Amino acid sequence: MPNPDAHSEVPNSTVMPMESVAAGVEGLRITFVNVYGVRTASGSWVLVDTGLPFSAGLIRTWGERHFGGPPQSILLTHGHFDHVSGAADLAQAWGVPLYAHPLEFPYLTGKKEYPPPNLEPGGGLMTALSPMYPRGPVDLSRWLRPLATGPGAEDVTPLPGWEIVHSPGHTPGHVSLFRPADLTLLVGDAFCTTKPESFFEAAIAQEPELHGPPAYFTADPQQAARSIRLLANLHPRVLAPGHGRPLAGAEVQDRLAQLAVQYAGEPGRGMEPGPNLAAA
Ligand SMILES: [Zn+2]
Ligand SMILES: [Zn+2]
């Protein structure tokens, strides 16, 4: 049984500023969620994820200022509201397509809702609030295009030089993005670099720690554990998560390997509920 409380501490020295996560990669944090811009070889760029409701204006201004104009496309790691809420406005304003994994389409085309949040693991303010989060359905069909994964996909990816890694578990069609040239990994919500149940506290003061995906919204923890293992096996040196701060350095791959083992761990280990739930 996966252990949602598994975590692996990472030295503070690995924390990267959002403005320079890796070559051509910049991030923007809006409250507790990050979006990223990734420059392409052709000089254009791709926006990865679109943040919370009412974030579209901020993301648009930031992106155009930092990358010199609209992106060529938008890529969604998955369909949770904190990653897709700006998608319709941005796709409309920029006139660009939205790419997502086909298994995520039912949640992005108004056909299906995500399962209700799992309130047992974790604890903390975010978990207590999670029944109030919108679970969809959003309908982005007008702009949506399927992301190709696997062999041959490089030819049609909206982001040449990056592998689209299907990393399900948090959601069925969750993807991460990996650039073999410098071992940079955009992880979406496959795992976090902060304790996911306390994103708001984490915004003020946080020691970097690798954690599994936000437990209250992770549909299939066992599959999520396999995905963390898969990502650890890429031996990334730069981690750019949807939640938490970007990290870089030789240590991160060891700590991620550690998380992969711990997250997949035995039942009963570290499963006590968090202390914050009653207070929240
Ligand atoms: Zn998510
Ligand atoms: Zn998220």
What's this model, at a glance?
By secondary structure, this protein is of the alpha/beta class. The chain contains eight helices and 13 strands.
Structure overview:
The protein is of the alpha/beta class. It has one domain (7-263): Metallo-beta-lactamase, Chain A (4-Layer Sandwich). Helices cover 23% and strands 19% of the residues. The protein has eight helices and 13 strands. The protein has helices spanning 56-67, 81-84, 87-94, 105-108, 125-129, 199-204, 221-232, 251-263; strands at 7-9, 25-30, 33-39, 45-48, 73-75, 98-100, 144-146, 163-166, 175-179, 184-188, 209-211, 238-241, 247-248. It has a six-stranded mixed β-sheet with strand order 2-3-4-5-6-7, covered by helices on one side. Strand 9 and strand 10 form a beta hairpin. Helix 7 runs antiparallel to helix 8 (251-263). The two termini are 28 Å apart. The structure holds zinc ion (2 copies). One zinc ion binds next to helix 2.
